[in-house]
Amino acid sequence: MPKKVIAVLATLDTKGQEAEFLREQLEALGSRALLVDIGVMNAPVTAADLTRAQVARAGGTALAALKAGKSREAAQPVMSAGATKLLLQRIGRGEVHGVIGLGGLQGTAACTAVMRALPYGVPKVMVSTVASGDTSSYVGISDITMMFSVGDILGLNSFMRKVLANAAGAAHGMAQVKVAVKARAKGARPLIGISNLGVLTRGTMLAIELFRKRGYESIVFHAVGTGGRAMELMMKQGIIGAVFDYAMGEISDELFHGLRAGGKERLSVAGTLGLPQVLCPGGSEHLGILVSVPHQLPERWKEHKHVWHNEVVLAPRLNAKELKMVAREVGARLQSTRGNAVLMIPTLGTGSYAMPGGPLNDPKDDRAYFTALKAAVPTTIEIVERPLHAEDPAFVQEAVDRLIALIEAGGTRTGRRAAARRRA
C-alpha cells in the first residue's frame, strides 16, 4: 500500500527540531512527512519540502517583501493563504492525506487558519500550547483535533518527544482509516442535513427515524451558531444534498445578539445551491442569552415572557414587533431560493416552549409573526400552514414526506409551480 503523506506545518526557524522529529516518527510508522515552512523572519534550522519562499509566493507576496516588513502579524495571513493553496492542490491530487500543526499563539492561529480551509475528513492535528483554553476561534466549524502540548514547544526533551510522537501516531492512524467523507455520487441518495434545538429534539428524533425508514441517512446539527454554519459548509462541499432546516433560532439570535447567532450567510446557502429544502421557523420565537450571574434577569428582558434554559442561559420570548423583524430577515435571506423549497408553519407553536401549555406560548404574537413571515418570503417558496405544533408527529411526518418528494422529483419543481401551491 502506498505511503500516506502527512504535511507538517511549522515555523522552521523556531520549531525546526520538533518538525524534524515528527518527520522521523512519521517515517518510522510508515508514513511520509511533507515539511511546510510557514516561518518568515529567521533562518530555518531544518530543510523544508515546501519552502517559505514557495509558500509566500503562493500566498501572493514575495518572501523578501514579508521580511522587509519585519512583522510576523502582517506575514501570517500571507503564509496561511499560501500554505492553504499548496495543500489544497495536493489534497485534490491525492498527494497529502493529513496535517499536523505546531505552534504557540501565533503558530496556532496560522496553522488552524490553514486547517479550517481544508475539506472535512482530512485528518487535522494541532499540537498547541493554548489547546487547554478556549479553542473555539481556532477550531471554528472544522474537524480539527486540538492537542495540548503541556510544555512550550521550544526544544526536544523526553516529555516533548512523547507528545510529538503521540501526534504523529494520531495523524498516521487517522490517515490509514478507509472510511471517507465523499460528495454524493450522481444518482445516489443525498445525505440530509437537519438543524435542531433542544425545543425540537423529539421531532428531530422522529424525523431521523422516518428518513431512515425511507432509505435516507441524515446528519443533525445543533443550531447554536456553529451548527448551522457547519451544515451549510457541508452543503458547499457537496456532502449534504438536501435540508430539513427545522430550527431558525440562529436568525433571531443574529438579530438580537444571542448565543445562537448563525452569521450573515445562514439560511441562504441551500437556496443559492438549488438544494431541496423544507424549512420551519423552529425555536425562532425566543433567544438564547448568556447571563453573568445565575438566574439574574437582565433589565433588557424584564418585560418579556421568559424561561431559564439552564441557570446561566435565559430564553426570553420576542414580542410581536421583534418577531416581525425576524420575519423580514428570514425573507431577505431566502431571496436566493428560486423554488425547490417548502416553508412549513406550525401555527400551534414553533417548539416545546411555545406550544400550548409551554412557558412561552403566545398565540396572538405567533399569528403576527406568521403573517409577517408569509409576506416576507419570496413567492418561489411554497408555504404550508398546519394547525399543529412543530413537534407534532403529523407535522414532522409531512415535513419528511415533502422533502423526500422534492428530492425524488429531481429538483424540477419551478418557482411558478411552487407559487401556485403557496396556499396548500
From TrEMBL:
Domain (UPF0261): give its ranges. 5-178, 189-406
InterPro entries membership: Tobamovirus_resist_UPF0261, UPF0261, UPF0261_C, UPF0261_N
The cross-references to CDD domains, in alphabetical order and at most eight, read: Tm-1-like (cd15488)
- A Pfam family matched by this chain, by name? UPF0261_C
Q: Do you know which PANTHER family this protein is assigned to?
A: UPF0261 DOMAIN PROTEIN (AFU_ORTHOLOGUE AFUA_1G10120)
**Annotated protein name in UniProt:** Uncharacterized protein
Query: Where does this protein come from, organism-wise?
Result: Luteitalea pratensis
